[in-house]
Design goal:
Length: 570
């Protein structure tokens, strides 16, 4: 099978006014193409270069169509932009580009580079250059007509509007205001004035517009935004015959600023009935419902948010908190799992997930969360010994039931939002198969956790005690004895010689490692425990010579001496 290839148009010098300028910012060290200044090439005739790089105009348009197809069929992601940019750069290698195709290439290139912070300035200048080209009068304007129908080149108005929005994103509000004046988009101009802190000019513009069109509800909304007045928003709502969602949105935002939560929920409800696809309003409404403890409405609002944008990690996190308030911990765990995937660098979200998993006895999930927290925060993470003991005890029970217990893939959890029969959204857990990583790997992971804890929290009495209890329960007596001794040393950092409660804690630990040493019948362990108890008795002799705790220590020492004689006799 042979493929037909269109012949490339012959190389011709472009006519005046039919060529655009590619922007290369001097402040940006990211070049358009790799630098070739250290390489030596022979001079190439322009006609030969065109023969190798040029494509037919129809082929150029097909490549640009494939570029747009990548955007339409893939999520908004950095890799998607890089894939699209490859098509654009190939077309830009051609020297026979007509004005319309070249303008389309530079427009796409500027919008794709806008997503990269290091070349954002160059992208903005390129888009500005394209807008300015529409108004230039040099050369023959008829040179722009050929092949204008072959690509979806944006109009001047749409490109200028897009440029104004990008100016606002960079904080160039004064420049964006001039763009709005050219477009006569007075609502946009009012917003730019307010962002500059020039409320008087914004109010003057809005009132001038109302003098010309007193029945226009959009102008009343602009005046309400400029003056922060509820009356003007309500006037806009009445003049629009209750059909202008932006009036209710502005009124709701104004109530949120004044922390009038219940009233803002009512206004958001009216606005979202008219325009339910406005995701930002659903999120703010959910927050307002949380503040006034309307948790059912808040759940509905945040569920709508994740329906519109499944990658909104904060919405998933808030949804998990609401499910907890509604006494639905299993749903809360699913929502919080999605939040941890989308906000993997937020230790607060990870900690919330850990506590919910521990409450539901999902020990392996809690183990993964704890390891992630220790990796990201280290000793800065203030660990709760109560939660840690609960998790370690749960993991110990799992290991004692099955010594070859596998470690499950705790990330194999997914959720989606579907509409129920009555039209309300509901959270649905997608069933996924959780396969084991390796037989017996759970014990290995728990031991790794113990090592991580002991290395991170040095001189922490509670952590040492939990580690020692784990090793004692799993039959690793030497390790357990070692950590009981470390726990007693950590406990002695307090004022145990003068405080009865502190001394009682020390004695309790001493009894534990004494009993373990006697059970082990190991001479080294017995000797270590004997020395430790002797030092404890010596330190507490001044204030607690006749105390019951001292008697308990003497009894423990006698048992150790008897065990030592038995070991030596054997």
């Amino acid at each position: 099978v042979t493929k037909s290839v269109l012949p490339a148009e012959p190389f011709q010098e472009p006519q005046a006014g039919a060529r655009l300028r590619m922007i290369q910012s001097e402040d940006c060290n990211i070049l358009q193409r790799p630098s070739q200044r250290n390489l030596v090439f022979k001079e190439v005739d322009p006609s030969e270069e065109a023969a190798s790089n040029n494509l037919a105009h129809l082929d150029q348009s097909v490549l640009l169509s494939l570029c747009l197809n990548v955007r339409n069929n893939n999520p908004h992601h950095g890799l998607t932009g890089r894939e699209m940019l490859a098509y654009v750069e190939r077309v830009m290698l051609c020297t026979n580009l007509p004005y319309s195709i070249e303008a389309m290439c530079l427009s796409l290139k500027g919008k794709l580079e806008w997503e990269r912070s290091r070349v954002q300035e160059r992208a903005l200048l390129q888009l500005q250059e394209l807008v300015d080209t529409f108004l230039t009068e040099d050369g023959d304007s008829r040179a722009r007509f050929p092949w204008f129908w072959i690509v979806p080149l944006p109009s001047y108005v749409s490109m200028l509007k897009d440029l104004g929005r990008r100016y606002v994103q960079l904080g160039m509000n004064k420049t964006a205001e001039s763009v709005g004046e050219i477009l006569q988009d007075w609502e946009f101009v009012v917003q730019c004035c307010l962002k500059q802190g020039n409320a008087k000019r914004a109010e003057k513009i809005a009132r001038d517009l109302l003098e010309k069109e007193p029945e226009n509800p959009l102008h009343w909304c602009a005046l309400g935004e400029a003056t922060s007045s509820k009356e003007h928003y309500l006037t806009a709502w009445e003049k629009s015959k209750h059909r202008l969602a932006s009036a209710m949105r502005g009124l709701a935002r104004l109530c949120v600023e004044k922390e009038e939560w219940e009233e803002s929920v009512q206004y958001f409800d009216k606005a979202l009935r008219l325009n339910p696809l406005y995701g930002g309003n659903w999120f703010t409404m959910g927050v307002a419902c949380q503040r006034c403890k309307q948790y059912t409405k808040a759940m509905h609002a945040f569920t709508r948010v994740v329906m519109l944008d499944p990658d909104d990690g904060m919405a998933w996190c808030n949804l998990g908190g609401i499910f907890l308030e509604l006494k639905q911990p299993r749903q809360a765990l699913t929502a919080m799992t999605m939040a941890t995937k989308l906000m993997e660098y937020s230790w607060q979200v990870r900690e919330n997930h850990l506590r919910i998993a521990a409450t539901l006895e999902e020990w392996q999930m809690a183990l993964s969360d704890l390891m992630a927290l220790l990796e990201s925060r280290g000793h800065h993470y203030r660990i709760d010994t109560g939660d840690l003991r609960l998790i370690v005890e749960g993991l110990t029970k799992s290991l004692l039931k099955d010594k070859e217990c596998p470690a499950l893939d705790t990330d194999a959890v997914a959720a989606k939002v579907e509409e129920s029969e009555d039209g309300s959204p509901k959270l649905v857990v997608v069933p996924t198969q959780q396969g084991p990583n390796a037989p017996g790997s759970l014990h290995k992971r728990v031991v790794e956790l113990m090592k991580k804890l002991s290395g991170t929290y040095t001189d922490n009495e509670g952590v040492y005690g939990i580690i020692a209890d784990f090793y004692a329960a799993t039959g690793e007596h030497h390790s357990a004895h070692e950590f009981y001794l470390k726990q007693e040393r950590a406990a002695k950092t307090t004022d145990w010689k003068n405080n009865e409660e502190c001394l009682a804690a020390v004695v309790k630990i001493a009894v534990k490692h004494m009993e373990l040493a006697v059970k082990m019948e190991d001479l080294q362990a017995v000797s270590q425990s004997t020395r430790m108890i002797a030092n404890t008795m010596k330190g507490a002799a001044d204030n607690f010579a006749s105390h019951a705790l001292m008697s308990e220590l003497k009894g423990a020492k006698q048992k150790l001496e008897a065990a030592q004689r038995a070991v030596l006799g054997a």
